[in-house]
Design a protein that fits this description.
alpha+beta, 11 strands, Jelly Rolls, about 325 residues, Arc Repressor Mutant, subunit A, 2 domains, 4-stranded antiparallel sheet, about 20% strand
Length: about 325
């Protein structure tokens, strides 16, 4: 693992930029809309009609240093979404470690294979290059936005950790929560170079805890599991358009033990579910990148046997029909 300070070369750091926003500064009937506008550059707020008619409490402190950002945020309950249509039209690709000081969240249909109980508290790892739908209770949460290149240099398969949660009751998670809370308090008084090292060290420590939870780091056996995990993911990526791609074909071609591979993809809902989700993600990208290609051609090329099978699977994961997704992704954003 790289040493703190060695991840991103940023020789011209001058100061830690800070800004604060509190919806208490705007009239009551505009508070939730003002919050939606404030955080909308990263994620979409999906308010219920009744929420627009009620007072809404939220405030955020944001600290920026080079490509790194740390936010300290409180808000009333919210439904948040980052859809593939949204991802296809912006350039936000950081990894985000969300540390819940109080309150919690539950992940929705966009991460349907995650079966954690509603409003679980702890530390959540998100990949902004993947969709998510999250219901948050009233909570205070610290969010560390780590540059994608930095995280990928530490663990090339970091995208596979999207949606994982460290339970706050676990000793290591509790220590990390205390560390991030202290960092948020001390960061404004720290010189820029030391602040950068502290942010990098925090990201490394958090990532290490997640890879350990996934049993992809920590000893020689874990290293072997990590290599196996990478091999399977690469094989699937390179064979998405093959009619023969299936869990059985993966095991046969790579000559890997079934039980071990299935355990590696347990968090993904199983190997078959992972293959399906990869194909649906590729389909979504093709719907946006190739607007003249018929939807059915995309479906057939990715192994779907009929339009109804494709539409049903696509709607289940992306919460809209393929044609609606294409229209949404291509529509100009305000």
């Amino acid at each position: 693992m790289l040493q703190p300070g060695a991840l991103i070369h940023q020789p011209h750091l001058t100061h830690l930029a800070h800004d604060r926003f509190d919806v208490g500064q705007v009239p009551m009937h505009q508070q939730l809309l003002a919050w939606r506008e404030r955080v909308g550059h990263v994620i979409d707020v999906l308010p219920a009609k009744w929420q627009l008619e009620q007072p809404f409490l939220a405030a955020i402190d944001r600290y920026r240093l080079g490509e790194w950002t740390l936010t300290d945020c409180y808000s009333d309950p919210l439904l948040l979404s980052r859809s593939l249509a949204r991802i296809s039209t912006d350039n936000k690709r950081d990894y985000v470690f969300q540390v819940f000081i109080n309150g919690g969240m539950s992940l929705g249909p966009s991460k349907a294979h995650n079966n954690r109980a509603p409003y679980s508290a702890g530390i959540l790892l998100l990949d902004l290059n993947q969709p998510l739908r999250m219901q948050r209770s009233a909570c205070r949460v610290l969010s560390l936005f780590a540059p994608r290149a930095c995280v990928d240099s530490l663990f090339p398969d970091a995208e596979s950790l999207h949606g994982r949660v460290l339970d706050s009751r676990q000793t290591e998670a509790g220590i990390l929560i205390e560390h991030l809370q202290a960092l948020a308090h001390e960061l404004p008084a720290v010189p820029p170079h030391e602040a950068l090292m502290a942010l990098e060290y925090s990201a490394q420590s958090l990532l290490g805890a997640f890879t350990k939870q996934a049993k992809l780091s920590g000893n020689a056996r874990a290293a072997a599991r990590s290599l196996m995990f990478s091999r399977v993911r690469r094989y699937i990526k390179h064979n998405l358009y093959s009619d023969e791609l299936s869990p059985e074909r993966v095991l046969l071609d790579l000559r890997l033990p079934r039980a071990t591979v299935y355990r590696l993809f347990e968090h993904e809902g199983g190997l078959a579910a992972y293959i399906l989700r990869c194909r649906l993600r590729e389909a979504a990208e093709q719907l946006f990148k190739c607007p003249q290609t018929p939807v059915l051609d995309i479906a057939y090329s990715l192994g779907f046997g009929s339009a109804s099978d494709f539409t049903r699977a696509f709607r289940r994961v992306h919460e809209m029909a393929p044609r609606d997704f294409r229209l949404s992704a291509l529509a100009p954003r305000c």
